[in-house]
Amino acid sequence: MRLIKQEHLQAEFFDELVNTQGEPRKEFSQVTDFLGGMTPVELGERQQDVQLCIREMGISFTVYSEGENIDREWPFDLIPRLISLKEWLRTKDGLVQRLTALNCFIDDVYNEQKIVRDNVVPAYVIEQSKGYRPECQGFSPAYGAWANICGSDLVRDDTGAFYVLEDNLRVPSGVSYMLENRKVMKRIFPEVFQNQDILPNSDYPNQLRQMLTDMSPRQDVTPTIVVLTPGIYNSAYFEHSYLAQQMGASLVEGQDLVVEDDKLYMKTVDGLCQVDVVYRRIDDEFIDPEVFNPDSMLGVAGLMRVWQQGNVALVNAPGAGVADDKVVYAFVPDMIRYYLNEEPILNNVPTYLCVKDDDRAYVLDHLEELVVKPASESGGYGMLIGPHASAEEIEEFRQVILDNPRNYIAQPTLKLSTVPTLCDAAVEQRHVDLRPFILQGKDSYVTEGGLTRVALTRGSLVVNSSQGGGSKDTWIVDTAE
C-alpha cells in the first residue's frame, strides 16, 4: 500500500516522509518501503501491539479536565518521523547557540543588565515578565547556566524550513515519553532497527545525571541528587519518577527535605543526608514559602537561602523563567547577535508584540488570520487560533488584548509539516511539531531527535497531549549523504 492514498494527500504541506506526489522521499526509502509494504491489516495489528506494550509498561499521562485528574494511556502512533543526520547536526548547533544566548541573557538580567543599557531589550520586557524574580538579583550559578534543561519547540513550514516556536525553560517536560517511545518501537519493529542506521537516544538519563553532577557545589564527593516533585497528582508525575529511577536519584517531595545551618538535607531511615543538587519540577513560586508563596506546602522553607549561600544547586535555577516569556522570545535573535556576535542558525517565527502600538493595531485587524498566545502560559492553554475561532472567541480576545497588551503576542498561522499517521483503517497526513531537549552546564548536549507531537484530529494544529494530541518516535537516520 502507499503510505498516503491520493484522497488524503494535502500537497500544500511539507510532509516529512512523502513528496507532493505521495511518493516516499528517496533518502528514507528503505524505511518507507518497509512501512508502505505492509497491508492496512498488518499496520492495525502492530498498532494494537503498541497499545498493549504501552499498557504493560504503564506509560501514562494526566489531563486536567473540569477540576478532575484523568490518567490516560500515552497516545502513540507507530509510523515514525524521520530526519536526516546531516540536517539534524545543523539543527543541534542552532539549539545550543540559542540556549547559550538565553543563559547569557538570564545571567545579565540578574546582574549588570547590559542588554537593557545598550537598548537591545527594553526594561519593561524584563520587569513585567511573570518569570522575573528580583530575589535572584546579584546571583550567578555555576557556569552562568540558569536554564540547564530546555525543551525548544520546533516546527517546519511549507518549504520544510525549521522554525523555533517557543523555548520552554522553567520545567520542560516530555523527555521520558521520547525515551519510552523508542523502547516501544524497538519492541514492535525490531527488524527495522537491525537494518537501519538510526541514532540512539537512550543516553539522555546518563547525560542528565552528568550535567547535574557537574552543577554540584561539592566537587570532591559523589553528590546526592534528588528529583523534587509536587507529588502523584501532578500531570508529569510519571516523568518525575521515571527520570529519578533512570538516574539512580531519589524522588522526593518537599516534606522529605529540611534546611539546617544553611544546608539542605534529605530525611532518611539512617538520619539526615546532605543534598547537593535538586532537579526541581516545581514552579518558582512554590519552592520556598519563606521567599515566594507563604502558603506553599510543596517546597522547602529556606531553600532559596541555601542556594544563594552556594550550598546546593537548583536545576533549573529560580528566575530562569524570565526567558520563558513569549515576549522575550521575540528578542532571542537579537540576543544571539548581542552576546555571541553570531547570526542565528535557527529562525524565529515572525512575532507581533501587542504591547507595541503598530503591532497591536495590525493584530486587532487580522485576528482571524493569526495565532494569539499569552506571554506566560504553556501547554496550549489560553490561545486563539484565528482561522479556527468563532466570531465570539475573536471578540473575546480583542478585549483581553486591549486590557493587557503586554501579555499577548501574535504569530502567523504556519502551514505545519505533516507525517503519515494511522487513523482507523487508513493512513492520513497529520500535523506535527518537535521538542528536542538541550542540556547546558559545564558542557552542552542535545538529544538525538526529540518528542514528536502529532495532532490526531484531521486539520488540527493542536499537538499538545493535554489538548488531545498524540506522539510519534523520531528517528535521526544516517543516510550517508
UniProtKB/TrEMBL annotation:
It comes from the Bacteria. It holds the Pfam family CP_ATPgrasp_2. This is Circularly permuted type 2 ATP-grasp protein. Residues 80-455 form the Circularly permuted ATP-grasp type domain.
